[in-house]
Known about the structure:
It contains five helices and seven strands, in the order H-E-E-H-E-H-E-H-E-H-E-E. The chain has helices at residues 7-17, 34-50, 67-77, 91-100, 115-122, and strands spanning 22-26, 29-33, 58-62, 81-84, 105-109, 126-132, 141-144. Helix 1 (7-17) packs antiparallel against helix 2 (34-50) and helix 2 packs across helix 3.
Amino acid sequence: MAETSTIIQIINLQAMQRPHAIAIMAPGRPPLTYERLKHAVDFIQRYLIKHGISRNDRVAIVLPNSPEMAVAFLGVSSIATSAPLNPAYQATEFEFYLSDLKTKALIYLSGVETPALEGARSLNIRLISLSPQLDEPAGVFHEVY
């Protein structure tokens, strides 16, 4: 067996060999299989590429600890540099980190007003809103915009 060394290679291998095995679980929600995880990661990759994000770019993620955070982290990390930031930061902290990281995009939770938005807007950083689908398997979201 060839050695797998990237996130996407590992996810693809698991999706091929064990498509119905559980990849992510959360209380009160159906589990996310490796097959669905692969589709979610592929979706994030295509979305980011379509919007000009590439290998050397940095994408900040400001999400609470959740299955969506895990899926977003894996998806972003498979195409760019993922920079998870603490949702509890204040606006000045977000502005500092977003600037220091030279962030190209910010992923945040739809419907949640976070101080990260103020910092991102002041730096003209692309905003990507993630909307979880709580009736779907853990980590699934249908649209980002």
